[in-house]
């Protein structure tokens, strides 16, 4: 018996040892990995681009077991490769570690491969047709790997497939000509074709209806626009259906609601209209229904929805108006209700607080008003509550503190008042809190936060709170996001911040801090991706800025002094504007030549910086926005600035720069804004501006020394909205092709500069300065809608071309202080959007065109000091202007005090009869006659006595010239 037991033990040990040998490979045992399959993987790797060397374990060394390689899974008994996991993640994309290159057909040697995942890579090629020969596959995931072209029909040969994902959210166009090849995949349970172009596959519904095993179907964003009727619904096993973001523009189809096993339904952004269909049978399995971004009507809500338990209903952005439909209160099984982005304009009804199964209530961005009822405390299950972007007012009821399950609360952008902090302290489960942009006020102490140990995100900017804590306060939380802009935190630096070791988002703009930045603070910024300390009174010098890669650092509008700090090359956004940084910029820009800077947005304007513009721009290849305005920089614009191929906005205004513009700037073809005003640039305006910089929206060369004609190539700038060439030495005529500036001619064409960078609209630094209505105005948030042209104070001549009146969208036009002649264009009234018009100090003649009465938006007009004649046309707009708009001409009629005769001309001097039947001039006229006689007599008496003394005669003539000029101006003013 003992021998038998011993034999059994020996066999057991041998079996286990053999199994381990199969799994791991040991000397003396055959290798687990098949040689042919190992060789196939090595060939596959050769064509693959792997910048992060993720496949470093794939080596050809003898004894290397491919079953232990990254991403490879083998059968533990046979040793054949069963699975390849070569997908990439978000972190891989963030670090450029995704796979690309070619897919080698050596994969065909993996005869036993059942699972292939190549998703989230960047192959940018067609899907290999040989995939259709890998008939052992049950799982094929090619989703979001930038495949393009037509999906090969041979994939229909994979009759064993259970899972197929060919989604294409980010890549080039991936399309099909029909979907018949899918009909052979009878075992398919999961099909994802999201963002694949199915516009030619009119049979999409009939084909997918033939897949009886289908459990999940995702065809979102596929460009299909027709839904054929379904006589019979075959895919009754369907659990998840997503047809979002197709353009059906119809009533909702009834067959969808005949799918009794349906759990999740996504029909967002399909253009559906009308009511939710009523059905005769009950659906009890539905747990999620997304009908957002349509035009769905809730009148009436079908009764079958009242029976749904644990339903999440999304009706966001459906243009719903008026009061919240009262029938919603019958949907007692609702666990989530999303009504965001509609137009409800009522108070919050009392019945809403009776839906005590709600875990998520999202009502943001409507026009809801009134106050929150104390009944809010009945929603004991509520975890997510969003009221942001409404007009709710009054204090927060104390009963809100009863929502012990609340995790996220957003009431930002309303009109709440009071303190509210007492209520916050009761919400112990709270992780996300946003109370920004309300009218809260009062003192907040550390006691208010004593129970908020789970708080991660605290956004409270735009209120008037005052935070008072002890210097040694230890907050109970570890925040990731903190935004307290406009709070009263100063003047001392908040020392408790040094305890917050998990911060990735910190904004303390405008909080009254007036100290230096402590050294320990920079130790926190290793992981901070968004740092905003702007609009304080921070002072002192900054030696180094330490920041997380790709982060935003805004220290603008403070009182920093000294040289510019050293910054990391991986920074994305840096704002050091509106301070007192001084010294040369050379070290900042050219101090490190060993690696390129990744900075995209740099604002150093409004400082005291000196020295020449650096000549090392080849180290800044990512720069898209550069602002150096209002400093003391000198010298030329260097040629190396042409290396800034991504540059979209260049601000060098108000420095001491000079020279001609370097031709290398034409390489910056993405430029949208150029502001070189208030400098000493000279030469002609380069013709390459029009040829190479076709995307320009703003061109400001004001107050320089440019000369010559305006080149006709400027007319190529179809997107130009602001053109300022004033105060230069330009000559020649206005190009007649200006009517080709289509952005100034068309009302619809405009660029939206304030979302230019797409991060945070409060931080966007894009701006432009335009002199309009006689005032210098700076435009930022509405810059995209401003359209103006200023050619004033030059030496331009000729007539104002009639073609200029084709700029129908122009709001401001200034041609003053030039030498323009002839008449004002008769069609000037076509420019109906004009708000400011200045033709003063020219030599224009003729009458004011009657069409000028059409300029109903005109609030500033200056036609003074020309040779205009006749009556001022009558309109409410023109007669409401000041007399100074018309002086220095021969005009009559209101608003001038000079009346016109019946034929519209200035009447002759007034005379009256004397007592003997004769006529005499008025006393004013006799005054000027006697003045002239006296001057004539005195002039010759003095002149005769000085003729013999030439030096005195020269001095006298100079004096008389000055007197005559002064008298001329006085007389012109009087007349």
Automatic annotation (TrEMBL):
Where does this protein reside within or beyond the cell? Answer: Cell membrane
GO (cellular component) term, any one: plasma membrane
Signal peptide feature range: 1-19
Task: Report the membrane topology from the UniProt record.
Answer: Single-pass type I membrane protein
The principal localisation class reads membrane
User: Which residue range or ranges hold the Leucine-rich repeat-containing N-terminal plant-type domain?
Assistant: 36-75
Which regions span the lipid bilayer? Answer: 926-948
Fetch the Pfam families from UniProt.
LRR_1, LRR_14, LRR_8, LRRNT_2
Ranges for domain Disease resistance R13L4/SHOC-2-like LRR: 319-507
Keywords, ordered alphabetically: Cell membrane, Glycoprotein, Leucine-rich repeat, Membrane, Receptor, Repeat, Signal, Transmembrane, Transmembrane helix
Concerning InterPro entries, the annotation shows: Leu-rich_rpt, Leu-rich_rpt_typical-subtyp, LRR_dom_sf, LRR_N_plant-typ, LRR_R13L4/SHOC2-like, RLP23-like
> What is the superkingdom listed in this entry's lineage?
Eukaryota
Give the similarity note.
Belongs to the RLP family.
Question: What protein is this chain from?
Answer: HB04p
């Amino acid at each position: 018996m003992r021998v038998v037991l011993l034999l059994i033990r020996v066999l057991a040990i041998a079996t286990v040892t053999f199994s381990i040998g199969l799994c791991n490979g040991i000397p003396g045992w055959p290798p687990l990995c098949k040689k042919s399959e190992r060789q196939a993987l090595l060939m596959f790797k050769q064509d693959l681009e792997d910048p992060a060397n993720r496949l470093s374990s794939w080596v050809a060394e003898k004894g290397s077991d491919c079953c232990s390689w990254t991403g490879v899974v083998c059968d533990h008994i046979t040793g054949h490769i069963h699975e390849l996991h070569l997908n990439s993640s978000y972190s891989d994309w963030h670090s450029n570690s995704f796979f690309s290159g070619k897919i080698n057909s050596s994969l065909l040697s993996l005869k036993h491969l059942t699972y292939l995942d190549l998703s989230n890579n960047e192959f940018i090629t067609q899907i290999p047709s040989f995939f259709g020969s890998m008939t052992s596959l049950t799982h094929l995931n090619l989703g979001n790997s930038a495949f393009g072209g037509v999906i090969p029909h041979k994939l229909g040969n994979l009759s064993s497939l259970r899972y197929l994902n060919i989604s294409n959210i980010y890549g080039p166009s991936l399309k099909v000509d029909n979907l018949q090849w899918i009909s052979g995949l009878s075992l398919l349970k999961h099909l994802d074709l999201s963002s694949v172009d199915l516009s030619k596959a009119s049979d999409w519904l009939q084909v997918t209806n033939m897949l009886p095993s289908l459990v999940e179907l995702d065809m979102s964003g596929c460009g299909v626009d027709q839904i054929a009727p379904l006589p019979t619904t075959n895919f009754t096993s369907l659990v998840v259906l997503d047809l979002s973001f197709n353009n059906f523009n119809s009533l909702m189809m009834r067959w969808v609601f005949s799918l009794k096993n349906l759990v999740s339904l996504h029909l967002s952004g399909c253009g559906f209209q009308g009511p939710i269909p009523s059905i005769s049978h009950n659906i009890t399995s539905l747990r999620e229904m997304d009908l957002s971004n349509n035009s769905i009507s809730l009148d009436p809500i079908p009764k079958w929805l009242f029976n749904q338990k644990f339903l999440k209903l999304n009706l966001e952005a459906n243009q719903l108006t008026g009061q919240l439909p009262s029938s919603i209160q019958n949907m007692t099984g609702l666990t989530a209700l999303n009504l965001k982005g509609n137009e409800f304009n009522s108070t919050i009804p009392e019945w809403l607080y009776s839906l005590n199964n709600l875990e998520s209530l999202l009502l943001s961005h409507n026009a809801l008003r009134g106050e929150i009822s104390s009944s809010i405390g009945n929603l004991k299950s509520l975890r997510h509550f969003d009221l942001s972007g409404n007009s709710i007012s009054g204090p927060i009821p104390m009963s809100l503190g009863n929502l012990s399950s609340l995790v996220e609360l957003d009431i930002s952008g309303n009109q709440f008042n009071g303190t509210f902090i007492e209520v916050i302290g009761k919400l112990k489960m709270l992780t996300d809190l946003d109370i920004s942009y309300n009218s809260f006020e009062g003192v907040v102490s550390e006691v208010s936060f004593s129970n908020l140990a789970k708080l991660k995100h605290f956004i409270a900017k735009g209120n008037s709170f005052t935070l008072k804590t002890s210097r040694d306060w230890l907050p109970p939380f570890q925040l990731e996001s903190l935004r307290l802009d406009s709070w009263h935190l100063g003047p001392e630096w908040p020392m408790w911040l040094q305890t917050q070791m998990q911060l990735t988002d910190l904004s303390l703009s405008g909080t009254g801090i007036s100290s230096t930045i402590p050294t320990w603070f920079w130790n926190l910024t290793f992981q901070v991706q968004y740092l905003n300390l702007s609009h304080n009174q921070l002072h002192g010098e900054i030696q180094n800025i330490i920041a997380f890669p790709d982060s935003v650092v805004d220290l603008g509008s403070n009182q920093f002094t000294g040289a510019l700090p050293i910054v990391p090359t991986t920074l994305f956004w840096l704002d050091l504007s509106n301070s007192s940084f001084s010294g040369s910029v050379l070290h900042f820009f050219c101090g490190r030549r060993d690696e390129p800077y990744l900075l995209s947005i740099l604002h150093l304007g409004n400082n005291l910086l000196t020295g020449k513009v650096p000549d090392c721009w080849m180290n800044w290849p990512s720069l898209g926005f550069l602002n150096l305005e209002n400093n003391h920089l000198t010298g030329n614009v260097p040629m190396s600035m042409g290396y800034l191929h991504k540059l979209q906005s260049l601000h060098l205004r108000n420095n001491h720069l000079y020279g001609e513009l370097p031709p290398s700037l034409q390489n910056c073809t993405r430029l949208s804004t150029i502001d070189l005003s208030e400098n000493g640039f000279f030469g002609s305006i380069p013709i390459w501006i029009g040829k190479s910089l076709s995307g320009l929206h703003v061109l400001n060369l004001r107050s320089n020394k440019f000369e010559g004609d305006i080149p006709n190539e400027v007319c190529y700038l179809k997107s130009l909205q602001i053109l300022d060439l004033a105060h230069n030495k330009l000559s020649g005529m206005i190009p007649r092709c200006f009517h080709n500036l289509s952005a100034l001619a068309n009302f619809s064409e405009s660029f939206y500069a304030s979302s230019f960078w797409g991060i945070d609209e409060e931080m966007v630094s894009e701006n432009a300065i335009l002199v309009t209505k006689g005032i210098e105005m700076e435009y930022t948030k509405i810059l995209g809608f401003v359209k103006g042209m200023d050619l004033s104070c030059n030496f331009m001549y000729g007539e104002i071309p009639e073609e200029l009146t084709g700029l129908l969208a122009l709001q401001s036009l200034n041609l003053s202080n030039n030498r323009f002649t002839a008449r004002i264009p008769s069609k000037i009234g076509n420019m109906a959007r004009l708000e400011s018009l200045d033709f003063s100090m020219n030599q224009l003649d003729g009458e004011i065109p009657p069409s000028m009465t059409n300029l109903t938006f005109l609030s500033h007009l200056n036609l003074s000091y020309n040779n205009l004649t006749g009556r001022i046309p009558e309109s409410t707009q023109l007669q409401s202007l000041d007399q100074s708009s018309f002086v220095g001409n021969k005009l009559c009629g209101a608003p001038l005090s000079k009346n016109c005769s019946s034929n519209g001309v200035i009447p002759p001097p007034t005379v009256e009869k004397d007592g003997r039947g004769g006529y005499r001039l008025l006393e004013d006229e006799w005054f000027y006659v006697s003045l002239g006689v006296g001057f004539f007599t005195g002039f010759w008496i003095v002149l005769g006595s000085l003729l013999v003394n030439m030096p005195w005669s020269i001095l006298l003539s100079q004096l008389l010239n000055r007197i005559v000029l002064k008298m001329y101006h006085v007389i012109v003013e009087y007349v």
